Amino acid sequence: MFPKQCCRKCALFCGITISFIVLGILIITFRAAIYKCIISKIFVLQADSYTFDMWKTNPLPMTLKLFLFNWTNPGEVLNSSVKPHFQQMGPYTFDETKEKVNITWNDNNTVSFYHLKRWWFNQSKSNGSLNDAITSINPTSLSSSYGARNWSYFLKNGLSIFLSSIAPSLHVTHTAGQVLFEGYEDSLMNMANRMPTFIVGSSLPNFDKFGWFYTRNNSETYEGHFNMDVGLTGQLGKLYSWKFMQHTPYFRDKCGDISGSAGEFFPANLNKESLVNFFSPDLCRYMQLEYEKEVDVNGVLGYKYVAGDRLLDNGTKVPDNKCFCNDDCMPYGVLDVSACRYGTPAFVSLPHFFKADPYYGSIIDGMAPREDLHDFYMIFEPKTGMPLKVAARIQVNLLLQPVDGIRLFQNVPKVYIPVLWFEQIVTIPSEFTIFVSLLKNFESICIAAGIVCILCAVVLEAFCCSRACNKPILSREHALKEIVPLTEKTGFEA
């Protein structure tokens, strides 16, 4: 090889190595900007984005587990020496699909939509049948007496006579299917639909049947209208209005604010002092979860946020929560949602009164609270704010209490009767955790890639120039000596 050829080849290698060095420096220098650009593409909701497809139709298989409480000794309710006893039934498992419908893109960088949910009973994953007989408190007569508790004696006496003729029993027995989705006919509800509210004592909805999830399956409008941020200002998923309201009429002051996440997207850069805030249409209020600990989900480090004082307290530990009390504030662990449930004395808690004041479990039998089975929590990758695992669990309870002037409820005990609780657990699949890990460690990966580029450039330069220029140049005699054997083999002359 001649020196001129050596210089040309060496110049080529130098150009390549310089390119590698520049590329490495650019990757390291602008890693934050590159990350921000990628995040802006992923965490901005647009009609043609990959994020939109995942948001519009839930990409993960979902199941809803429902547990019912069977009241085993309702005939002893007036016996003060016998506690009401409840037997947990289920789970009754339903496969679920969820999608956004009637999607409207607004000029103010928000999107409006409704939820469409569908459920199918999955017998193979259930413990029991939808034909199981379930005995519980009569919710319609209970609602009527609760709504009339502050009436005058004469009005309550009239309601008492009415209830004794239409709904003379405190308890009812129906199948699990009827209690949940199918619904059952109720004489008091039928009568209430034809009478003014002040006669029956409650603003019950105009349904032809009663069931805790009746009319909800396959309904686009049940959960209401939502309006949320699309993320152009960095607040993807922030809820601005629900049912066209920015403040609900169900709770006073700031407790009635529509705030927090709409439920799918959450803020990035979470820390151990952060509160995870999201809105629940079932409770008609925002919910706040608090940091508990670090956990591992499919190899990704996550922060676990749980139901704590900010959610479960009624003003004793967190004074700001006092406005969630619409009447008398209850002991810790039970939340009043009666205003949200048509005036029905509905109160929610964690299943089996987990984390609640011991008072609730002491006046009934059958509760067995356990952290691994009954806690409400969410686990997030803190840098991106992406949910890694969600375990949503809520119990519905009805308040039974004495009401003077109404004979059916004259001498009953005051007790929070557990009716049902639900569980929905969703864990991010392992293939998604790879994507989350890449996002989480993106800047570190950029630094490593940049360093590798620079090192490769140095090694390439040293190796290639050494091979190109340090190889000895052969004389004509030596060259002919190497060529002659070749011509003898091929038959060609040199």
UniProtKB/TrEMBL annotation:
Q: Cellular location of this protein?
A: Cell membrane
- What transmembrane ranges does the database entry give? 12-34, 447-466
Q: What keyword terms does UniProt attach to this protein? A: Cell membrane, Glycoprotein, Membrane, Transmembrane, Transmembrane helix
Query: Pfam families this protein is in?
Result: CD36
Which GO molecular function annotations are given, in alphabetical order?
A: scavenger receptor activity
For this record, an example GO cellular component is: cytoplasm
The family assignment reads: Belongs to the CD36 family.
What is the name attached to this protein's record?
Scavenger receptor class B
